[in-house]
Amino acid sequence: MIKRYLQLFSFFVLLQMLVGCSTNPATGEKQFTAFMSPTQENQIGAQEHKKILKEYGLYNDKNLKNYVSDVGQRVVKYTERGDVRYKFYLLDSPVVNAFALPGGYIYVTRGVMALSNSEDELAAVLGHEVGHITARHSAERYSRAVAATLGTSILSAAIDNVGVSQALGLGSDLYLRSYSRGQESQADTLGIRYLTRAGYAPSGMAGFLSNLQADSALQASLDGNKSKSANSFFSTHPGTPERINKTIIEARQYKQQGIINHDRHLRMIDGMVYGDSAAQGFIRGQSFFHPDIGFKFSVPDGYKLINQPSQVVANSKNGGAIIFDFAPNKDALDPLQFLNNVWLKGEPATNVQPIVINGMRAATTSVRGSANGRAVNIRLIAIQWSANQIARFQVIVPPNLTRDQLNALKISTYSFNHMSKSEKASIRPYRIKVITAKPGDNVASLSRRMAQKDYKERRFRVLNGLKPSDKIVAGKVYKIVIK
Predict the structure, then answer these.
(1) Rounded distance between C-alpha atoms, residue 460 and residue 470, angstroms
(2) Fold of 289-426
(3) For 458-471, what is each residue's pLDDT tens digit?
(4) 8 Å CB contact between 322 and 314
(5) pTM confidence score
(6) What is the per-residue pLDDT for 228?
(7) Which residues have CB under 8 Å from 359's CB, separation 6+?
(8) Residue 103: which of 141, 78, 139 has the closest Cα?
(9) How would you class 73 by CB atoms within 10 Å of its CB: exposed for 0-12, middle for 13-18, buried for 19 or more?
(10) CA distance 415 to 409
(11) What are φ and ψ of residue 319, in 5° steps?
(12) Which fold is adopted by the domain 431-482?
């Protein structure tokens, strides 16, 4: 019976491969896209686009949005897929990221705009994402995922073993959830092609990847993660040095002269928000401020704050952590009821206590849990922010903390408070400022003007794509970050 199932499945896959294989006009290669047609690509892109806008939001600068769109439309003018209507969006996110959805939806973040040092580098990023679309990588990935799922189902039915089914499903997900290295490499190749067809310098791709490599290394240092690879752009991408060398070699196939527009690009991003925006809240030293919502809190020294879309996290090397978020309180429960009935979902808790934090009703309890494979206490604090919203702290308390360390964690949760009008007015986002170097300026003198308190020279070099040996040139424009 098992053999019969496998024979049927093999016949089905072979049939779909024969029917669903086509030659891609951009790559010239055969590819399997049987389970996602161009029409379906448009439908999926339109659906997912709404989710992207809801999650990230667009950056509210008409000139900058038009600039991104203009560069993008120039890049796609000579692509092989005339059936696609390309659309370009600038997302309000500090993360250095760019991605594409089926149907021609292409996104870049403020982080990409800040790290780019010329128009050809921006064009290279957009060209890479266009390459994913013209090569139909999403359709190929999705079709292979469907085939793998069908295969898992048939094999599971044949073997009749839940464990095998789960193992096969997990393997398929891990393999198919991201672009393959081959697809990323192919998108680089196509990106350089479109870049040069549009009249830009082919060196833009390697230039941006070099910036990316330096920024990844800087972020690893800021995170204190020396073991983290600074030479990779996501775990599934090729190593950045490998990508840089490959794109340099491929760029030699094209005419080297082309549009660079260093000064124009910098003038376009002059004044752009850098880092978190008012809608996302700001990290300033050991404190987090959210002027739009109107709250603030601080964390102990030695804890690193990380601002995520749905929560704020602070981690310590001693294993301690603080996780903050908001939760809906649909039934307008008081904090003690919310903690018992909603957060703990009715699980019995013997030590729930009502407390008051800066005039706000709250409740707290301690539960046992595990973190990184060891037992810890987890302190839960629910604070009534409004009638229908609860502010929540989860504090992971590792064993063997000193009394001072425990007290510092307690002070942290009690620091949660409303922001005053003067605080809301004074806490503003960082911004990019473009300056012109004067005779006598050097990296040290210009980097002293950076708003950040640490790694000033290194931040300045990474922001401007400067290698350790590069010198400041009088009359040239550079980027700094100001308050």
Answers:
(1) 12
(2) Protein Transport Mog1p; Chain A (3.40.1000)
(3) 999 999 999 999 99
(4) yes
(5) 0.78
(6) 42
(7) none
(8) 139
(9) middle
(10) 10
(11) 95, -5
(12) Membrane-bound Lytic Murein Transglycosylase D; Chain A (3.10.350)
Distance CA 385, CA 445 (A): 45
Amino acid at 16: Q
pLDDT of residue 347: 73
Helix 204-222 vs helix 119-134: crossing angle, to nearest 10 = 100
- Alpha-carbon distance 375 to 383, whole Å? 26
**pLDDT given for residue 139 in this prediction:** 58
d(CA 424, CA 417): 13
3-state secondary structure 224-247: CCCCCCCCECCCCCCEHHHHHHHH
* Cα separation, 281 vs 342, whole angstroms: 27
Structure confidence by residue, pLDDT tens digits, 402-446 = 999 999 999 999 999 999 999 999 999 999 999 999 999 999 999
Residue pair 143/5 in contact by the 8 Å Cβ criterion: no
Whether 192 and 130 have beta carbons less than 8 Å apart is answered as no
Give, in degrees to the nearest 5, the angle at Cα 273 between 102 and 451.
Answer: 135
**Domain ranges in the chain?**
2-269, 289-426, 431-482
**Angle formed by the axes of helices 137-159 and 2-20, nearest 10°:** 170
User: How confident is the chain (483 residues) per 10-residue block, as mean pLDDT?
Assistant: 50 48 59 60 84 91 98 93 91 92 92 97 96 75 52 41 35 44 84 94 94 92 59 48 90 89 98 92 93 96 90 91 95 93 79 94 89 81 96 92 91 96 92 98 97 95 96 98 95
Q: Where are the beta strands (DSSP E) in 220-373?
A: 273-274, 282-284, 287-290, 295-298, 303-307, 312-316, 321-328, 353-357, 360-371
Q: CA triplet 54, 267, 473: central angle to 5 degrees?
A: 130
Is 118 in a helix, a strand, or coil?
A: coil
Which residue blocks in 319-430 are alpha helix, DSSP H? Answer: 335-337, 403-414, 421-426
> Hey, what's the torsion of the CAs at 80, 183, 65, 50, to 10 degrees?
100
Which tokens is 82 given?
A: 């005339």
Give residue 153's pLDDT. Answer: 43
* Length of the chain (residues): 483
| Eight-class DSSP state of 23 | E
Token match 């808790």: residue? 349
Distance CA 304, CA 285 (A): 9
pLDDT for the residue numbered 124: 96
**Longest alpha-carbon distance in the chain:** 83
158 HSE (CA, 13 A, CB side)? 15
The single residue listed with the structure tokens 């991104």 is 68
Tokens read off for 84: 């696609």
Q: Would you give the end-to-end CA distance of the chain in angstroms? A: 71
